[in-house]
Amino acid sequence: MNHAVADINAAKTESVEMIVMAYLAAWNEADDQTRRRLLELAWCETAVYSDPTARVVGQQALSEHIHAFTMRYPGVRLELTSPVSAHHDCVHFTWRATDGDGFTLREGRDVGKIARDGRLCDLVGFFGV
């Protein structure tokens, strides 16, 4: 691979990493307005999120889903546990959810699509992997 292509790929991966970090920050944000702003940065308006427990469409629905999750698990925090891997319009990363004491509640893997504007437009979560 020539250096120009490698530089473009590295820049694209870095941009996707920032989007994933904003997405994870939304899961860690208690304030509804701040969470919504993070999702506006990271999530397409009509994006679909699905995992074994839910399927939601759009920024507002995802924000409400995150709020319900954080009410169910007070003090929960999500953290990235792998590098963000991206190519073409696809992204992949693993994460861990911990409670307020740092105990692991759940680990998972997300696989998704990146829209033309650089935001997540489809994300599928898998638990226990």
UniProtKB/TrEMBL annotation:
Name the coiled-coil region(s). Answer: none
Q: Return any one Pfam family short name.
A: SnoaL_2
Q: Where on the tree of life does the source sit, at the highest rank?
A: Bacteria
InterPro entries per the UniProt record, alphabetical:
NTF2-like_dom_sf, SnoaL-like
SnoaL-like domain residues are 22-121
**Name of the protein described by the UniProt record:** SnoaL-like domain-containing protein
Query: What is the native source organism of this protein?
Result: Deinococcus ruber
Q: What is the lineage of its organism?
A: Bacteria, Thermotogati, Deinococcota, Deinococci, Deinococcales
